Amino acid sequence: MTELKSYTLAILASLWVVVVAGLAILQPSALDVSTVTTILQFSTILGLVSLGQGVVILCGGAGIDLSVGGIASLTSVVAMQAAEAGMPLPLLPVICIVVGAGLGTFNGLLVTRLGLLPLIATLGTFYVYSGAAVATTGGAVLSGVPSYFIVWGRGVVSGLPLPFLTLTLPLFLLTAILLRFTAWGRWIYALGFNERSARLVGIPVDRVRLIAYGASGAFAGSAALVGLAWLGSARPNIGQNLELTSLTAALLGGIGIMGGRGGVIGILAAVLLLVTLQTGLLQLNVNSIWQVGIIGALLIIVLLADNLRFIRRST
Amino acid sequence: MSNPLDWFGRREALLAVACLAAVLLFSFLSPYFFNAENLSAVLSNSVELLLVGLGMTLLLGVGGIDVSVGVAMGLAAIAVGRLLQAGVTPAVAGLAGPVAGLLIGVGTGSVVVFGRIPAIVATLGLYGVYRAGIYLCLGGDWLSGLPIGLTELVGTGIAGVPLAFPIVALTYLALYVALRRTPFGPHLLAIGDSEAKARLSGVSVNRTQLLAFIISGGLTGLAASFYVATYRNVEMTIGGTLALEAIAAVVLGGTSVIGGRVSLIGTVLGVLLLRLLQNGLLLSGVPSLWQTVVTGLLLLFVLGIEAVQGRLSLTMLMRSKSGRLASRVAQ
């Protein structure tokens, strides 16, 4: 397992070096502290969502959460609507996380109680959540985020953005510790690796999985909070394409699609790689469509390389 | 559900009733709904989704999936559009769609089958690659105001019947025969049921899976020709939600997402129900923004009902056999 992890991290790190070197040659002026800040700022939201996606996939049982983007969008809209309806503004973070966790738990109930396939259950909720976010606002942006949140959302301490420093990084470290050193963490790996034996040794499989979906929702909700504080308004399309990008980040980061394999530090590395690539292409004035293509190709190439390694070993 | 190929089961009956109920309901709600013009518009709006959905039915049946069909349709549509611009006869340009689709199907299928990457992940990556391909081909522009030849060809059709009708009927018939009368059908279902078991029984897993991707690609390309004929332009965002819509329609139709059961007629009814609802809601004054919410709720509702029913019948089964089960567990 550790060998696998270091292998993934080595690949990601060398790809990252290639990207940075390419940027340094093509656009030397881009190598600057402000670029680092920008990269980390953009990594904050994607990182949070990918973390949840990764935990859901780790739990196995064909686990996947296509609704993460929808949760982020709907949460930010609901939070601002609650604020307009007279909810005290300091409660904004609480409501974001609670709403996100609630929407995620609904996914979890569909999967664990009704036994729906995660792909289809979260496809359905993806439609419902993202559709509701756009439909209830008519696609309009809701403003009115109090300034003290914006101070946090846009704050930078020695080149590091505050949301990344105070939310994304701690949550990644916390999840890594939980996964590695607590019974719950080991249970997640166990049921992802072999659900049948996990059940037989008495692991509460359904409850662990339910909590994983709830956590994914809560992470997406906190991503919505970052979006609110950073942009100063609730955008009903804040979560657009997050399902694809977060899936790419999780899989690039070494999470096995069948579950039970991989770690969250890999996800963080993958997120940084993806955002560095995006920022670099932006600096070079390359159309954003190319990013989608390059990310897609990267995903396939990394998985092909992964497969080849296994084939070589097994023969 | 005894025979996985049963052509009209409980789900299909439920969907047919739902379609009828939708027609009745919307006839009450809107004076513009129940007339030949609107209903034929619903049908012609269903053609692309139907063709793509039939291909997706095979893919889900074999235990695969393809989330890149929308952008694949976009690429094929560009081929058709460029040929039309170059002044090629409409019939040839129309045929270019399926040909381009077949080639894309070979590409997608090869990555999934020979690359041994789970279909959902591989096609997700290819979605990005094809999307960039569309940009490369269009250069950030739209193909618009395409020559009207193909539109006329499709619209005039044979003896006054729009060309879409015989083509969809023939496609359906061909797939039906392939599933029922050739080894392809049983092989497909066996792989969808359990790839390992199918492999051990001597089924050529790779060939069957690749074939399913190629057929789906061809049908997607055919859909592209109809798309160009209908809209006479190709935009950068073409096919954005098509894959998810197709998956939703196929799953509504009773095809199992984990493979092992396919229902072609279910897919037809699923597509019809989706399009009827979208059209009816719009005419009843519901803003189009709510369409995705309704699609999602419908999907969850139908599958939820089925899951609850399945659980109930399972409980009854357990109760009647509880003695035997208990003894088996004790051993």
Q: What tags apply to this protein structure?
A:
heterodimer; A: mainly alpha; ABC transporter involved in vitamin B12 uptake, BtuC; two-stranded antiparallel sheet; 4 strands; globular; B: mainly alpha; 2 domains; 14 helices
CATH architecture of the largest domain in chain B: Orthogonal Bundle
CATH class categorisation of the largest domain in chain B: Mainly Alpha
Q: N- to C-terminal separation of chain B?
A: 31 Å
Order of helices and strands of chain B: HHHHHHHHHHHHHH
Give Rg of chain A in angstroms.
19 Å
- CATH C-level class of chain A is Mainly Alpha
Under CATH, the topology of the largest domain in chain B can be stated as ABC transporter involved in vitamin B12 uptake, BtuC
Q: Measure the end-to-end span of chain A.
A: 20 Å
Q: Write down the Rg of chain B.
A: 21 Å
Class from secondary-structure proportions of chain A: mainly alpha
Proportion of residues in extended strands of chain B: under 5%
Using a beta-carbon cutoff below 8 angstroms, give the protein chain pair with the largest interface and the number of residues from each chain: A-B, 45 and 46 residues
The CATH architecture assignment of chain A turns out to be Orthogonal Bundle
- Describe the largest sheet of chain B: none
Total number of helices of chain A: 13
Q: Could you describe the 3D structure shown?
A:
The complex is a heterodimer of chains A (315) and B (331). Chain A has 315 residues and is mainly α. Chain A has a single domain (38-305), classed as Orthogonal Bundle (ABC transporter involved in vitamin B12 uptake, BtuC), CATH 1.10.3470. Helix content of chain A is 76%, strand content 3%. Chain A has helices at residues 2-26, 33-58, 68-84, 92-112, 118-137, 147-154, 162-181, 183-193, 195-200, 205-231, 242-252, 264-283, 288-314, and strands at residues 142-143, 156-157, 160-161, 233-234. A two-stranded antiparallel ribbon of chain A has the order 1-4. In chain A, a hairpin with a 2-residue loop joins strand 2 and strand 3. In chain A, helix 2 (33-58) runs antiparallel to helix 10, helix 3 (68-84) crosses helix 10 (205-231) and helix 6 (147-154) crosses helix 10. Chain A starts with a helix and ends with a helix. The model of chain A has no long low-confidence stretch (mean pLDDT 88). Chain B is an all-alpha fold and 331 residues long. Chain B has 2 domains: 10-286, ABC transporter involved in vitamin B12 uptake, BtuC (Orthogonal Bundle); 289-326. Chain B contains 14 helices and no strands. In chain B, helix 2 (36-61) runs antiparallel to helix 10 (205-231), helix 2 (36-61) packs across helix 12 (264-283) and helix 3 (69-85) crosses helix 10 (205-231). The model of chain B is unreliable at 320-331 (pLDDT under 50). Chains A and B meet through helix 5, helix 11 and helix 13 of A and helix 5, helix 11 and helix 13 of B.
